Amino acid sequence: MRESRSEQEEDRMLLSTLLRAAGGRAGRFVEIGGYDGITFSTTIMLERCFGWSGVLIEASSANFAKLQRSPRKAIAIHSAVCAGDGSTNSSVEFTTGGTFGFVNGERDAMSDGFRARWLGSNANRVERVPCQSLTSLLATVPPSSHV
Q1: For this UniProt entry, which residues form the secretion signal (predicted)?
Q2: DSSP 110
Q3: H/E/C letters for each residue in 8-57?
Q4: Which domain range does residue 49 map to?
Q5: Considering the entire predicted model, what is its pTM?
């Protein structure tokens, strides 16, 4: 499985369970924190090797730009995922200075210790990003995409 890109081989660990649950058909996935679509992706193997389709959600504007340039077939959505019914669009302050661009997130949801370890002197670099519920984000995906 050369296409495995997940950081801790999570995709390989879950592969037999996912394929069994899909019943021999191509399944569907949602990956929150899509980064560039390749690096540490837990879904790229499913897409490339097993014909699955899905959605990659990425909040960071810089990372979303990378995701849009990736060769992935999955639908890319620029948003953070927030609690709520999704009936109104909102936004959150999202860190932008995380380690190598991987460790970003809603600043207010991070502990001081986490920010110190993973963001360091960049802990105050933030951007305001769109934020919607997962339900409302998936409602924007065309039905023909089978997600």
Answers
A1: none
A2: S
A3: CCHHHHHHHHHHHHCCCCCCEEEEECCCCCCCECCCHHHHHHHCCEEEEE
A4: 10-141
A5: 0.85
Whose CA is closest to 95, among 82, 109, 113? 109
Question: Phi and psi at residue 90, in whole multiples of 5°?
Answer: -135, 180
Alpha carbons 113 and 123: distance in angstroms, whole number? 11
Per the domain annotation, does 51 fall within a domain?
yes
How many domains are contained in the chain? Answer: 1
Q: In this structure, is residue 3 part of a structural domain?
A: no
Please report, for residues 43, 133, 135, the alpha-carbon distance to residue 127 in angstroms, rounded to integers and kept in the order given: 27, 19, 23
Query: Is 5 a member of any domain?
Result: no
The more confident residue out of 68 and 94 is 68
Question: Residue 87 pLDDT more than 60?
Answer: no
CATH number of 129's domain? 3.40.50
User: Residue 119 domain-assigned?
Assistant: yes
Give per-residue pLDDT as tens, 18-32. 999 999 899 999 999
Say what the pLDDT of residue 114 is.
84
pLDDT digits (tens, 9 = 90+) for 99-131: 566 677 777 788 888 888 877 777 677 889 889
